[in-house]
Amino acid sequence: MRKKFDELRGLYEEAAALGEARAVLAWDQRVTMPPGGAPGRARSMSALSRVVHSKATAPEIGRLIDETWDWAQAEGPDSFEAAYLRVLKRDYDRATKLPSAFVGESAAAASAAMSAWEAAKKNSDFSAFAPHLEKMVDIARRQAEYLAPGKPHYDTLLDLYEPGMRRAGLDPLLGALADGLKPVAAAIAERSAAVSDELMRGDFDERAQLALADEIVRELGFDFSKGRQDRSMHPFTTGFSLSDVRITTWTMRGWLPASIYASIHECGHALYAMGAPAEFELTPLADGAGLGVHESQSRFWENIVGRSRPFCEWLLPRLRKYFPGKFDRTSAEQLYSAVNKSGPSFIRVEADEVTYDMHIALRYRLETALIDGVLKAKDVPEAWNAGMKEYFGIVPGNDAEGALQDVHWSQGTIGYFPTYSLGNLMAGQLAEKMRADLPDMDGLIARGEFQPVLAWLRERIHRHGAMYFPADLMKKAVGKGPEAGPYIAYIKKKYSALYGF
Ligand code: MG
User: Fold this and answer.
1) How far apart are CA 366 and CA 376, in angstroms?
2) Distance 71 CA to ligand 1 centre (A)
3) Is the pTM above the cut of 0.85?
4) Interatomic CA distance for residues 245 and 379, integer angstroms
5) Residue 161 in domain
6) Which of 47, 327, 368, 494 has the fewest CB atoms within 10 Å around its CB?
7) Active site residue: 266, 295, 353, 367, which one?
8) Which 3 state secondary structure label does DSSP give 431?
9) How does pLDDT run across 182-238, given as a tens digit for each residue?
10) H or E segment at 248?
């Protein structure tokens, strides 16, 4: 049986290695490719994707999964072999349950919807995008039906991004999160003048920003012998292998936190990607437990570390070094305050820790209603604006800064948004547990001794790769599945001190 398992691994490795090559092309497209390269790149990507897909869905893989299944399970549920087959079978079933005509149809619809969304956003005209959204919702429902006939569609879609999570488990989590955050946001709104971010605005040399971003991620533990940091339109992380992980950042000349916190966020994703055991290379276990856990790592470093008072103590001398004269009279306390200004905003990606999850709650409400068929695509802007008024007390002046701001729905990624909030609340749980295990966590951060923090995450989260469902991984790491309490407590404590309520 071991021989058959090795044969299966060989087949998977070939598909995975070609997938790595495709990832290099995708990275290049977003980072270094000249605009003229687009048509040729589309050709190469499409050809390579077809080869990867046919290798990954080869009938031999299905046959070998079936033949080795019982043998692998007998090794024990925590064994490499059992976990390998669990994750591979899940991916394989998904990839083979969708008829190829449907795959082609949905790729074409997504491509058309993406172009329509870009144009609609530019003109701030939702009505031009509405028929495409209606189509993408229909495609998402049919996809769910193919994958799990007769099961609630949203649950099936959610499971694509957050393995094992169901709406029945998610509703109370997101509900508790919104209920906990709303009063904090309301108290902040009454004292908005108590915190100013003025000192982070001005004119900051972009080359200096990039040099600072490199220094920060290196100090946090990003290994430049196994990764790179570049610039792109939107920051992202991708990995070709466990020892080649790429992050990107962006810079805004007038707003210094953009580059600093994008870098720290993506570095958090990268440290997770770099942290899987070497034996997971070219296996389905290398990728991480799910998007929520991934986001817990990025948000942990970005917010819980990066926006903490001790981190600001560490950061301040570096700001003075890279931007001579600009921070001479700034105190760590002022810096801490400036990077934690909170308030209602239209745009999710610019939202602060307190309000971010309310943006997610709104999207979750709308996308579940779309999938349930109780909301029509054309009525999304009205429902959006009503939700903005309810959560934030503000209404966007146009659809570009309202219902058209995010790319997700145009690509048919429905069920994805909640993973951002799950990431935040898991980060809160991890921080609570880490603080108990590392009582001098603040001192370590203030002195720039990030290694014990990273080692804790490696031990509790990273080394398990995709071995466990997110909820089970959290039980292993902190003794409980996902819950909102620790994150809300963290937010209340931090912001009541910052804003004085
Ligand atoms: Mg992220």
Assistant:
1) 10
2) 37
3) yes
4) 41
5) no
6) 47
7) 266
8) helix
9) 999 999 999 999 999 999 999 999 999 999 999 999 999 999 999 999 999 889 999
10) strand 244-249
